[in-house]
Amino acid sequence: MNTWYNCIIANFPFFQEQIDKNYLEITEANAKASAEKCRRLLAELERTLVTNLKDGRYAKSGGFIEYQEELQMIRAKYESTPGLGVQVRLFCYRIGQLDG
Known about the structure:
Blueprint: H1 3-10, H2 12-54, H3 63-79, H4 88-97
C-alpha cells in the first residue's frame, strides 16, 4: 500500500484529536462572539424601556399596555436582526423573562 495512506491511518487518532480540539476552540469563540453581539444589541434596544421605567412613564392608566407594546417592539427588532449567531436563542429566552 501507499506509504502516505499508511501514515495517515497510523496517525488518525492524532489527527482526529486535533480536529476535535480546533472545532471546540472555534465553537467556543463563536459562542462568545455571538453572546457579546446579542448582549450589546439587547442593551441598546432596552435603553428606551429602562429610561421610561425610571421616568415613571408606565405608572399611569394604560401604562402597562404601553410597556407591553415597547417590550414587543424590542423583541421584534431583536429577532429580526441578522447575524446574531448561536446565542440568539439564549437571549430570546432572557427577553421573554423581562415581562414575567
